[in-house]
Amino acid sequence: MSAMAEAPFPGAPARGGFSLMEMLAVMAIVGVLLGISLGGLSRTSQGTALDGGIRMARSALQMARHSARDQGALARVLFMPGDPSQVRLELARDAVSVGFGESSGGRVLAGRNRFAALGGAKVVTGGSVRDCAELDGQDTIVVDPADDLNPQRGFVLTMDVWPDSDPMGGELASYGRLFQWKLEENGAVQATFEIDGQGSSLELKTAPGVVAKEAWVRLELAFDGFEALLRVHGVIEATKKVGDANVPLRRLAEGDVSDRLRLGGRGFHGFLDEINYRTMEEAEVIELERGVRLDMENPIEVRFDSEGRLDPRLHSSPLSIPVRLEDERRELKVDLSGVVR
Predict the structure, then answer these.
(1) Among 268, 269, 274, 276, which Cα is nearest to 131's?
(2) DSSP-assigned beta bridge partners for residue 193
(3) Which residues 6+ apart lie within 8 Å of 268 measured at CB?
(4) CATH class for domain 91-282?
(5) Residue 279: enclosing H or E segment and its boundaries?
(6) Which of 146, 192, 212, 230 is most open to solvent, judged by the fewest CB atoms within 10 Å of its CB?
């Protein structure tokens, strides 16, 4: 009876549980399968994080390239190694845009929900577009202070000018001691810049006679860290490099909190219209996911020119941006035409 009680049914042999060897074999197989599964999951997770870092870096480069073509080359991407690694995107923004169609209480709209104060300047008809500002020697237009007006990283200032005094002359614009821009009596345009770390001012001047009395002229003053330049009616009339082989990129000197963008004054008689001022601003700082890092010792700066190509003043060969996560390494490439791969 005892043998039959131990058997599952009459005639079947009695059997106990798994042996120790069988259990060990099963556990070994499960361990191998679990290891393979977790390894695959880890590699998938790493690949996803690395893909995300590559996508963010590529997006920053493409945004800078498009902005450079649209905004006259004031754009750069700075790749900063470290933990966490960072991608810094700087783009040109329209900081001030002054037309004179609307004014009240001695102020005019200056873009970005800000105003410019008319320090004696009058809004009159007959501008290059519609109305314009008339300045009589000491009259000024001063823009409300704001952080995004700082020209340190780079700026472009354009305006339509009609001088009506004889002889001509007077200040066109200034931003504290960082830059001053003036018209000379002989029709030349002159500018000075205070460069960070440079003992003396950098001076830029056109030939005489590029500006005529009693006629509208489109003037442009620009600084982009490589060079300063003056344009008259879209033609470069004067340019000068601000860097050298050791320091190819420079910034303007530190300003004061009291600095303002000031137009006119100090002897200028005439009219101003269609004033546009763009500055280079830090648009975004992207921190790569933890563990994803830029695999290089020193920062890499990427600049594009106004055609969307790598700026030949800084880049003479294609660029490679290495990105690593643990033992996996990939490279983001930018060719001389500016195409990001």
Answers:
(1) 274
(2) 179, 202
(3) 135, 137, 163, 165, 169, 170, 171, 172, 182, 183
(4) mainly beta
(5) strand 268-287
(6) 212
Distance CA 36, CA 42 (A): 10
Looking at this protein, which amino acid is placed at residue 272? Answer: L
List helix spans (H) across the chain.
Answer: 2-6, 20-71
pLDDT of residue 165: 83
Q: What is the pTM of this model?
A: 0.81
Q: Over the stretch 294-307, which tens digit does the pLDDT of each residue have? A: 999 999 999 999 99
Reduced to 3 states, what is the DSSP secondary structure of residue 11?
Answer: coil
Name the segment(s) of the chain with CATH classification 2.60.120.200: 91-282
Q: Residue 112's closest CA among 286, 332, 278? A: 278
> From the centroid of its chain, how far is CA 306?
13
Q: Which residue has the tokens 């354009």?
A: 158
The pair of structure tokens assigned to 3 is 């043998």
The DSSP symbol for 112 reads: T
CA distances to 14, 29, 128, 174, 225 from 17, rounded to whole Å, are: 11, 19, 99, 93, 81
What's the 3-state SS for 170-182? EEEEEECCCEEEE
Residue 288 CA to residue 302 CA, distance in Å, equals: 18
Query: Tens digit of pLDDT for each residue in 251-277?
Result: 999 988 889 999 998 899 999 999 999
CA dist., res. 222 & res. 279, Å (int): 10
Q: Tell me: the pLDDT tens digits for 128-175?
A: 988 999 999 999 999 998 888 999 999 999 999 999 988 899 999 999
> How many residues in the chain?
341
Using CA atoms, how far apart are residues 211 and 177, in angstroms rounded to an integer?
25
**Short-list 329, 262, 261, 267, CA closest to 292:** 329
Q: CA 180 to CA 266: how far, in whole Å? A: 11
CA distance 219 to 184: 14
